[in-house]
Amino acid sequence: MGKGEFLGELEQLVLLTVVRLGHEAYGMNIRRELSARTKREVAIGAVYSALDRMERKGFLTSASTAAIAERGGRSRRCFKATRSGHAALSHSLEVIDALRGDLTFIPRTKTR
Amino acid sequence: MTTPPRLARQILRIILPPDWRTDVLAELEDEFRQRSLNEGVNRQWHVRRWYWSQVLRSVPAAAAVRFRRLNPLQRKGWTGSIWQDLRFAARLQLRNPTFAIVAVLTLALGTGANTAIFQLVNALRMRTLPVERPAELVSIGINTHDEGRFGRFTSRRPFFTEPLYQAVRAQHAGFTDVFAWSAATWNTATDGEFRPVRGLYVSGAFFGGLDVRPLAGRVISGVDDQRGCDAPGAVLSYAYWQAHFGGQPSAVGQRISLDGHSFDVIGVTPLQFFGVEVGRTFDVALPLCAEKIVRGAQSALGRGDSWWLDLMARLKPGWTAERAQAQLESISPGIFGSTVPAEFSAENARNYVAFTLTTRPAAQGVSSLRNQYGTQLWVLLGTTGLVLLITCANLANLMLARATAREREIAVRLAIGASRKRIVRQMLSESLLIAALGAAGGAIIAAWLSRTLVAFLSTDDTRLFLDLTPDWRVFAFISGIAVLACLLFGLSPALKATGTDPGRAMQSGSRSSTDSAERFAVRRALVVLQVALSMVLVVGAVLFARSLRNLVTLDPGFQQDGILTMRVDLRRASVTPETQPAIYRDVMGRVRAVPGVTAAAETYIVPLSGAVWNQLVVIDGEKKQGIVNLNRVGPDFFKTMQTPIVSGRAFTPDDRPGATDVAIVNETFAHRYFASENPIGRTFQLNDQQPVYRIVGVVKDTKYEDLKEDFTAIGYFPMAQDAEPSAASFGLVVRSPMTPSALTPVLTRTIREVVPGATIAYGTIGTLVRDSLAIERAMASLAGFFGVLAMLIATIGLYGVMSYMVSRRRTEIGIRMALGAEPGSVIRMVLGESGALVGAGVVIGTAMALVASRWAAGLLFGLQPRDPASLMLAIAALASVSLLAAWIPARRAARVAPTVALRPD
N or C end of chain A: which has fewer CB within 10 A? Predict the structure, then answer.
């Protein structure tokens, strides 16, 4: 596996959020979800930067939606994880789990 | 407030990669609106802070992406090596960031100031109107051959009467459309308050002729503008629609109240459209025929002596403005001949018939601000240009010092075979990097500064509206400045650095060729230049500050503090010319009885409000030279204004209809027409009309139209003797020690008890005075700011050179001290040297200031551009600051211990 196929921390978080949001995965919504779940304010620029990198690596594709009436007829750019995106995500989660193993000195926090 | 902070948005716009730009901006805006709705009105700053934090934290990520995409490995050849140079330059700057930070910041200030002023010039003079094919538009005017036009003048650009417009429309040949418009202010409130909107009366062909298509609904067209229309529709501007109708499409079909009349909203104009007058915008437009409904009996429609319209036209294909002008000139006699108002005297009519029509290209729209602010803007552009020059001179100085420090490095590179061209390019790319960063910073400063300036020049009455979004001209200007600055401060050090003989430079232990008198001479010359240029700016600052002071401390002939002005609109109240006098008396009695009011009087014209009523006077049957300003006032007017009565008496309640028609004149009137004779008891007429007025008093001179005018001749008549009392509106001046906000509710209540339908607009003379000085205040503040900035930069330059001089001559100073020189004599030596530099700069600067001040002459009030006191003040300021800058290195020199100085390196 080449270096380019590993995910950075923010990339990993963003990709997870994209998968989680499904059809609602557009920039601001990803940012909102990420901020709510990680309880820290994430900048929209950082989200787009991660999306841009992953799109270049082929982990994501994006497409414009049809015009949305509430947005004054503007469309929205939505993202979707590709097959290799899913693979990279599960791989990097596996790597984390493998490294974590049964270590006990990292207290396990409850996830929501 | 539902729009994100503009500056933040602009920053993000610039930094975002183009393919994300729309998405990110739109999504941020959506979220901003959402948050804005969720938060209370008082917590809007939270939302703005959130937006700012999003922007600022997005900048590094976006910049990183752009940087990543500029992959240098994919670039080859010339561009590739430029890229290498820039990366090398960037690394170099990061190693010694202080220099880079100082350089970028000063350049950003210089570029920002220049660009801000240029943006104003651009918006005011260069941008074309945001309509289709603006080059076809011409503005139609009248050449009056230096004769006066007579009659009533309303609106900002009162160039045509309605009959004239109709005649032009009927007889022109070269235009596809001729259209008329007139600016007005309407009141949207219905509860006695005055909530003004900026109105526009437009002829039916206005929107069609400009080719402005509606964003929603429809715009006014020929069918809406029919004489005698009874239910005309109103068109909203985009901004007004957003602010007052929430941008809802359902606004079309709703109703809007203007001056108490209800109109249907029929459409909305696009975002960019602001009318045809640059510097102004409108909120609501009505067809011309609606003027009759709004102004009623005062209507200007059909009246040949009511000047209120401005005309524009679109040329037919194949026609030029010159050809159209020739055609208009040929039909002028017919047009003016057929529209002579019956009221005109024989002489006025003769002049009127000789008028001719003119055209001038109007692709950039029309604007009175161009003349009003023209000189100021050029002077400011010159000022900021000088600041930039000083900045560049200072940077050149710093770069020369750095070149000295890098001499070894460059010598090595030359010795191992680098071409001189290659090294010059390397050094220039460093300058370019600094210049580019400075320009980027400058763009941000400019965006902020130009908006601040517009806000500074806007007053309650005249809000300025200029489209300041950067266009290609602004970008060209900024890039031009960056390149120019880079060459100015980078080229000479680069050439100098590579001009040395590598062999000499590399000799170890040598003090190297930097000691060459030649190079040091360049640095000293640069300091002289900086001092000279800042002398020009400091003189300018002193002149503008003193001019403003003269205006502020000027005696307008009345006590301006504590006067509240009111305009009471009676058109919605049931007041007739017959009932008017009794109502005035009742209102005045009650206003005077309001606690806190010490005096009050009616007046036709509020002094300094810009309103004018004037006439020629006839004395003893002889028509006199010079126009006389007039006013009609109540008995307590002079008491309220605290204008002293020089001789005779004030008006009294006995000056009533039927009694002798009396007048009070001011000192200028008395001197001009009666010289040394006593004017009391003499008589005069307006033109040759009845009645004959008998002068009963002389009052001190006061300013009439604005503060900057010379005292004019003024005649006052008693309000009660008005033969045609107006039932439409009247003005009031009220003197009170109370604050306006405490007084106005009581006054509104009091007046509406007498006239329930009255609408009252308030102001203060103090505000009128302050507003009329907005441009002077802006000039004084800006000139002061740039003057101080220039002085600071020049001082830093001087300090740098003197410090360098002291360190270079340490050995010499050490020997002198070892041989018994007193510290005092060393200090004198250093101060003497800096004094020579400053002296040379001041002499050259004074000469330059004397030449340059010619351009400022027209902007100064109450002092000459070559005012010796201002020159002395500027010299003193510059000399004392320079002395301070030289003192520090001088003291250091005096503390040199000979043993240390003489120890070999």
Answer: C
Residue B645's pLDDT band, with cuts at 50, 70 and 90, is very high
Distance CA B79, CA B674 (A): 82
Q: And the tokens for B728?
A: 């439409």
Task: Please report, to the nearest 10 degrees, the dihedral formed by the alpha carbons of residues B824, B825, B827, B832 taken in order.
Answer: 140
Which two three-digit tokens encode residue B828?
């004198």
For chain A, what is the domain count? 1
The encoded tokens of residue B634 equal 């109540």
Q: What is the pLDDT of residues B91-113, one digit of tens each?
A: 777 777 777 887 888 888 888 88
Cα of B775 vs its chain's centroid, Å:
6
Residue A31 lies in a domain: yes
In a mutagenesis test of the A interface, which of B9, B21, B23, B32 is the best target, namely the one with the most A β-carbons within 10 Å? B23
- Band of the pLDDT at B75, cuts 50, 70, 90? very low
For residue B406, the 8-state DSSP code is T
DSSP letter string, B139-201: EEEEE-TTPPP-SEE-SS---B-HHHHHHHHHH--SEEEEEEEEEEEEE--SSS---EEEEEE
Q: Using DSSP, state whether B127 is helix, strand or coil.
A: coil
CA distance B684 to B619: 5
In a domain, A49, yes or no: yes
pLDDT at position A3 is 44
Model confidence at B317: pLDDT above 80: yes
Q: Is residue A105 part of a domain?
A: no
Parent domain of A28: 7-100
DSSP structural state of residue B43: G
Segment A2-5 long-range contacts (CB within 8 Å, at least 24 positions apart): A4/A57, A5/A57, A5/A84, A5/A88, A5/A91
B750 C-beta neighbours (distance < 10 Å), count: 15
Residue B567 has pLDDT above 80, yes or no: yes
Q: Which residues pair with B277 in a beta bridge?
A: B366
Summarize pLDDT for B802-852 with one digit per residue, the tens: 887 887 788 888 888 888 888 888 888 889 988 999 999 999 999 999 988
Residues B412/B506, Cβ–Cβ less than 8 Å: yes
CB contact under 8 A, A32 and B17: no
Nearest to B768 by CA among B608, B548, B619: B608
CB B541 within 8 A of CB B788: yes
- Give per-residue pLDDT as tens, B379-399: 888 898 898 888 888 888 887
Q: Is the peptide bond before B691 cis (omega within 30 degrees of 0)?
A: yes
Is the separation of the CB atoms in B491 and B428 below 8 Å? yes
Task: Tell me the CATH number at A18.
Answer: 1.10.10.10
Judge whether A86 lies within some domain. yes
CB B240 within 8 A of CB B284: yes
| Those residues with Cβ within 8 angstroms of residue B825's Cβ, 6 or more apart along the chain or in another chain | B816
In whole angstroms, what is the distance from residue B349 CA to residue B342 CA? 9
The verdict on a CB contact (< 8 Å) between A27 and B24 is: yes
Scanning every residue of chain A, which has its alpha carbon at the shortest distance from the alpha carbon of B67?
A: A49
**Chain B residues with CB-CB distance to A43 below 8 A:** 53-54, 57-58, 61
A76 to chain B, any CB pair closer than 8 A? The answer is yes
Is the confidence at residue B80, as pLDDT, over 80? Answer: no
A82 shares contact with chain B (CB less than 8 Å): no
Query: Mean pLDDT: which of B387-401, B505-519, B655-669 is highest?
Result: B655-669
Supply φ then ψ for residue B503, to 5 degrees. -60, -45
Say if residue B40 is exposed, middle or buried (CB neighbours under 10 Å; 0-12, 13-18, 19+): exposed
Contact (CB<8Å) A48/B24: yes
CA distance A48 to A26: 10
A contacts of B64 (beta carbons < 8 Å): 49
The interface predicted TM-score of the complex, written ipTM, equals 0.85
Whether the predicted pLDDT of A7 surpasses 50: yes
